[in-house]
Amino acid sequence: MNKLAYLLVVLLLAVTMRAHGQEEENASDPDSSGVVSNRLLPSSTPVLLFSDAEDDLKEEKKSKKKKRKKNVYFGEKTKKTLIKTSFRDQVTYQVFHFTFSKREPDPYIRDIYWYDSKNKAIKNSGFIASKGYLLHGPYERRIGEQVVETGMYYYGTKHGRWMTFDGKNILQDKRHYDEGWPKDSRITYYNRGERKIEKLTPIEYDLEEGNFYHFYPDGQVAVTGEYSFGEKVGLWTEYWSTDKDKTVKKREIQYQSEAFTNGYKPYIRAEWDREGNLIYRNN
Description:
Blueprint: H1 3-28, E1 35-36, H2 51-64, E2 72-73, E3 76-87, E4 90-99, E5 114-116, E6 121-123, E7 132-134, E8 137-143, E9 146-154, E10 157-165, E11 171-178, E12 181-182, E13 186-191, E14 196-201, E15 203-204, E16 207-208, E17 210-215, E18 221-228, E19 231-239, E20 247-254, E21 267-272, E22 278-281
Keywords: Signal
Protein name: Antitoxin component YwqK of the YwqJK toxin-antitoxin module
Signal peptide: 1-21
């Protein structure tokens, strides 16, 4: 092999190895593509927000006047379960219902409550159908014989009236929910008549609390983020307006991980072009 041929072979190998290395880097780099594949990410505005659950609640109230089937709520068969925990001399009971339905949790709601059957615990995040079941139906928490909390779940979300009491059975708090959304949540519309939602802002006690969504006029998601005690927390994501065949991130902004973190300055974590190619990253 002459010297020129040898150099060409070395150059070819170097290019091949570099390309292969870039492919491996892209495969392990979560920022390498801004195209979102998460099937639970909302790609359009919710349809008839609140109405389904409100209709179901009305039917539930009507059914109470009749002889209702045992452990059936909102037309769904459930199983009644009890969790008992002890701390010193205090015994707490949680009586609740869950459904075997494989219905997907609402991706717009931050807190999805489910029963972890393996660990015998109720959790409000990280739901995986293979590991547990969505809470559905009435819930009651007691300390000894004293009821301290009551409410209703609707496919993993708080629904209707929730109340908490102190040890003397005096009402301490009362909240109302619609499929996980606090009743006072703020909704703005591009066109209210056509229910073209612009922004969904969860509100509790006059403060933003929960998942925030902003949509484009055609219904595609434009911005997602989370509020805690009225402050932006965690990672907020902006999305490009596309032809709906895919969802592409535009920019990520990192906020404080917890509310009231003094001195924290938000920063742009990464940016992508309309095709999903990474164009900026703050390391």
